[in-house]
Each structure stands twice: as C-alpha cells, then as structure tokens.
Amino acid sequence: MQGVRRGEMSSCSSWAAMPILYSGSVVTGLWLVYFMAIIDEQIPPLGSTYSCQSESFLPPYISMAGNFPPASCIFSQVMNLAGYGGVVLFCYRFFQVKPRLKEVWLNVSALVANCINCFGITLAGNFQYSAEPTVHNIGAWLLFVVGSVACWLETWITIKIDIKNEGMKIGIIRALLSGVITICMVLFTVKEVQGDCTSAVPLEWALVMFMFLFYGTFAVEFRHSRFETTCTDTCPSTKVTSC
59: Cβ–Cβ under 8 A, 6 or more apart, which residues? Predict the structure, then answer.
C-alpha cells in the first residue's frame, strides 16, 4: 500500500498547486488589507460592537477595508491578481473539461460566468467605494451573483465528467460549498436591504472566503492533468515562400 501511495503522489501533476496558490494568495491578501485598515483605525474589528451610521468607524466590509490608502493600494493589487489570475485559471479549467464533456454549451457557460465574475472583481478593486460607489457595487454584485451561478455550473460539470471516478465525491463537496455561498449571498442581500450591517458584514466575508475555497478545490482535478503550449508553423518548413 505504501508503494502504491508513493507512486500516486509521484505522478501527481505540479499543476495542482495552481488553484491552491491562486486562492491562498487572494485570501491572504484580503486579510492583509483588513488588518492594515484596523491598524490605521479605519474600520472596527469583526465581531466588535459598532454602529452602521458611525462617522468615526466604517463597518468592516471588505470594500471598506480597502477604501483608503495605504490599504486601498494593496486592495487594488489583490483584486487585480484575483481577476486576471482567475481568468487564467478558468481557461485552464475550460481546456481540461473540453475533451471530457459532450455538452459544449455547459463548459462555455461556466467559462463565461467565471470571466464575468473576474471582471466584477477588477471593477470592485479598481473603483473604491468612496470614489465610485455605483461602479464598485456593480462589480461586487457581479462577483456575488454571477460567481454563485458559476460555482453551481462547475459543480454540475464536476459530476458529469467524473475524472478518475472522483466526480461524485468532489461534486458533493462543491455542491455543499455552492449551497453555503448561495445562502450567504441571499442572506447578505436581505440584511443589506434591511440596513443591518452588523449581520451583513460577516456574511460578506464568509461568502468571499467560501468562494475562493471553492476555486481551490480545482486542485483535485488539476493533479491529474498536464498542460502544454504547442507552437506550429502554418507553412511547410521546406518552402521559403511567405504565408
């Protein structure tokens, strides 16, 4: 058994690190922004008592943590990493699924939803709430709503392609994560409408953390794949004529 396990570990693709590094970097960056904002006394700590209408302290939303410099500088960098890095990750995921899934529309829909999600991330990161609240909120809701839909699509794909007979196991985990993400999004929306920021703030943090945890689970399938880039000439090598 030890020999088999060592063989399985040695055959594990290094591409498995990509989703983990992506999710880990973004989550670490967001918490760095949060602690910087607390040190600069821009927001109160999570779990503390605060007023939603306070002028001295902003509610500790993720957006508010990255609202003013120097935390806003790190916030923009982290969100750009999340946006552009996410597009790369989801393109690799698309090509991994492509030869295994007959329903092309499902794979394309997941890629489009994930890319819209990434676009929303960059909007939220580059347009701080204090400067452009409308654009910032559009980006945040693209992340929350379209991102939740993308998680369900990826869960469906996971079960259908069933890589190495692990589809059902990881599919159940992703379904649970998608359910938690959706519940957090709905409750967050309700609390925002009610003006209850003390309940909305932890829901927002939970929503984002679970969403990036979901992306990190792509490592399960990525460990079975290797990606290569091939460059070929369009003209035969024996001819000198121009293409």
Answer: 43, 44, 50, 52, 197, 198, 200, 201
Cβ neighbours around 1 below 10 Å, total: 5
Domain count, the chain: 1
Contact 107, 154 (CB under 8 A): no
Domain assignment present for residue 9? The answer is no
Looking at the domain assignment, is residue 2 inside a domain? no
Report whether pLDDT(119) > 80. yes
**Residue pair 63/129 in contact by the 8 Å Cβ criterion:** yes
Domain annotation covers residue 97: yes
Distance CA 243, CA 233 (A): 10
Euclidean distance between CA atoms 158 and 169, whole angstroms = 9
Look up the domain containing 213 and give its range: 14-222
Q: Is residue 234 part of a domain?
A: no
What is the pTM for the complete model shown?
Answer: 0.88
Summary mean pLDDT of the chain: 89
Nearest to 65 by CA among 23, 22, 29: 29
pLDDT band at 225 (very low <50, low <70, confident <90, very high): confident
